[in-house]
Specification:
Elements (H helix, E strand, L loop, with lengths): L3 E6 L1 H9 L38 H18 L9 E5 L5 E4 L29
Antiparallel strand pairs: 1-2, 2-3
Length: 127
């Protein structure tokens, strides 16, 4: 493995950049979907998440293990606890960014309509 760490971008700087990034599929309209988002780092148990990113799939796990060992040995950076966004140059010379996975929460108002014989639903429940 020959990966070069080009730079480490502080998370706060990357969060500010994300807040100003427009939605790509909005055409000429500038929609800033993350402008008012509560963006923060958090730790989760794997069982709490439903991963959809390719790097979490089984056939990519060995690469992630190898990369973690490599970055620990060469740069003393643990990919399980990175100091910021890692800008890495891969073996083909392409610059890539490595960052923790995004987890988005959307609060929704639910209304449970009881049917005959149902127990009484809770009042004002927000999920």
């Amino acid at each position: 493995m020959r990966i070069i760490l080009e730079r480490v971008e502080p998370f706060e700087k990357a969060f500010a950049r994300l807040r100003e990034s427009p939605l790509e599929q909005a055409g000429d309209e500038k929609i800033l979907i993350y402008r008012d988002a509560n963006i923060r780092l958090a730790k989760f148990y794997a069982a709490e998440l439903n991963p959809t990113a390719l790097y979490v799939l089984d056939h990519k796990l060995e690469f992630q293990r190898e990369m973690r060992r490599y970055l620990l040995d060469r740069y003393q950076i643990d990919t399980f606890n990175p100091p910021g966004i890692l800008h890495l140059r891969n073996e083909e010379g392409k610059l890539e960014a490595m960052f923790p996975p995004f987890v988005e929460f959307y609060p929704e108002q639910l209304r449970i309509l009881p049917k005959k014989g149902d127990n009484t639903p809770p009042k004002g429940r927000i999920c």
